[in-house]
Automatic annotation (TrEMBL):
UniProt xrefs under SUPFAM superfamilies: Calpain large subunit, middle domain (domain III)
Stretches assigned to the Peptidase C2 calpain domain: 123-234
Similarity comment text for this entry: Belongs to the peptidase C2 family.
Domain of life: Eukaryota
Entry GO MF terms: calcium-dependent cysteine-type endopeptidase activity
Keyword annotations from UniProtKB, A to Z: Hydrolase, Protease, Thiol protease
Listed GO biological process terms: proteolysis
Entry protein name: Peptidase C2 calpain domain-containing protein
Organism: Homalodisca liturata
InterPro entries associated with the record: Calpain_cysteine_protease, Calpain_domain_III, Calpain_III, Calpain_III_sf, PalB/RIM13
Pfam families in UniProt: Calpain_III (PF01067)
């Protein structure tokens, strides 16, 4: 699997009525040689994802999985019924990241709509680049209770009075290993706040990387435990 979270993504919101939306992606071509030998394959992926950012290309599966074409234009049509979702996520994608491309994304519809870029809500970043599972710290997942506690542990402190924080954890590792993350609340800054969870996992273990997003996170201290699925995977 690969991460499409860094691809340009847009939120499409349509009114609650039947109709259709056409989405047109146009790649800017500024040199004649580029036009003669167009090796850039582009497309737009459409997700029924409430207009939220998409990280895994097939979770959820795309509603429209656009064919990658080496044309300057890609056009897709979203047909809407009275019961269709009102919010979609549009992901601009290349077949391979060969060069930086400039493009224009347009939408045309038979009903009112808005199209806006999905912004990155995370203004503070911390990164651990020397993390490793090695020896006893390669404890595997919770299916292995005798070794799981020895996995690496990290603490994050949300130093704010806000209870609507957003927290994202991005774990990358060897592609041959399936990995996951668990977050546990150590303490909350405000004792009167109800904890949204005691412990929360990233779900199914994934090969190479996993993304975990938490919404409405109160200020406090949180412990992060990354793990591979099996013990002794170093």
């Amino acid at each position: 699997a690969y991460n499409i979270g860094d691809n340009p993504q847009f939120r499409l919101e349509v009114d609650a009525s039947a109709g259709a939306v056409w989405v047109l992606l146009t790649r800017h071509i500024t040199q004649i040689d580029d036009f003669r030998e167009n090796t850039e394959y582009i497309t737009v992926l459409v997700y029924k994802n409430e207009g939220n950012r998409v990280y895994y290309p097939n979770d959820p599966p795309p509603y429209i999985d656009g064919v990658r074409i080496n044309s300057p234009h890609y056009l897709c049509k979203i047909i809407l019924s009275e019961t269709s979702p009102r919010k979609f996520t549009l992901v601009v994608s290349q077949y391979e990241k060969m060069h930086t491309i400039n493009y224009t994304l347009r939408a045309y519809a038979t009903c009112p709509f808005t199209l806006s870029k999905i912004q990155n809500p995370y203004t503070y970043t911390e990164q651990v680049t020397d993390g490793q599972w090695k020896g006893v710290t390669a404890g595997g997942c919770r299916n292995h209770p005798s070794t799981y506690p020895y996995n690496p542990r990290y603490r994050v402190t949300l130093d704010t009075t806000d209870c609507t924080n957003q927290l994202a954890i991005d774990l990358k590792g060897p592609k041959q290993y399936q990995m996951g993350v668990e977050v546990t609340i150590v303490s909350l800054a405000d004792d009167t706040v109800t904890a949204p969870f005691k412990a929360k996992s990233s779900g199914a273990y994934r090969s190479g990387f996993v993304i975990m997003e938490l919404q409405n996170v109160p200020a406090g201290v949180y412990e992060i435990v990354p793990s591979t699925f099996y013990p002794n995977q170093e």
